[in-house]
Design brief:
Blueprint: H1 12-29, E1 37-40, E2 49-51, E3 58-61, E4 68-71, H2 72-83, H3 98-111, H4 117-144, H5 160-178, H6 180-189
Antiparallel strand pairs: 1-4, 2-3
Helix pairs in contact: 1-4, 1-5, 2-4, 3-6, 4-5, 4-6
Length: about 190
């Protein structure tokens, strides 16, 4: 097996500092993964959902290479991470949109499978968990540069695009944490 290639020119101190913050927040997020595992898409970001021409209803999913069994808190945490972040992943100013969460949570819950109490309790912390997981993955790849493709035109220096993405997902995790109570109220009322 080949050793990892350390291709980044990103300052390691900056990555280490960001990584330490991500790790510290991870220990505080309290997002336990509960069974049962359910058949899931595994990557429900908005670009993997195809809508009818009127854009009022979803008609199919694409990018099916991630199909498998996983806890619903991970499936929906990743979905809401994507759906409720109108700025996308290429900024460090990501914010969690409570109105988008409210609309999507109510719509999803109207057709969702029956959920256990533990699953329902884990949905909101699952958003922060997935944001932090992705922040950690982007942070590691800012140094390793082996998994996520970077846009060299916009970010010519190796590692800088992934570092920006890591900062953005950390900002999104913080924003989701800031509206946790409101999100839990939405789920409780649906």
């Amino acid at each position: 097996m080949r050793p990892p290639r350390w291709a980044s020119s990103t300052p390691c101190g900056e990555v280490a500092e960001l990584g330490a913050e991500i790790l510290g927040r991870w220990s505080e997020c309290g997002a336990a993964v509960e069974r049962p595992f359910r058949f899931s898409h595994g990557d429900l970001k908005i670009s993997n959902v195809r809508f009818a021409e009127d854009r009022e209803r979803a008609v199919s999913l694409i990018d099916l290479d991630t199909l498998g069994q996983m806890p619903i808190v991970c499936e929906m945490g990743d979905a809401w991470r994507s759906w409720c972040n109108p700025l996308g992943e290429d900024t460090d100013a990501c914010t969690f949109d409570l109105d988008l969460f409210t609309a999507s949570a109510r719509a999803w819950l109207s057709t969702a499978p029956p959920l256990s109490d533990a699953e329902r309790r884990g949905l909101v912390p699952g958003i922060e968990r997935i944001c932090l997981e992705l922040a950690a993955r982007f942070c590691a790849d800012a140094v390793r540069n082996v998994y996520f493709r970077e846009d060299r035109e916009a970010f010519p220096e190796v590692g800088t695009h992934n570092l920006l993405r890591a900062r953005g997902q950390l900002a999104l995790a913080k924003s989701a944490r800031g509206v946790r109570g409101e999100c839990e109220a939405v789920l409780a009322s649906a």
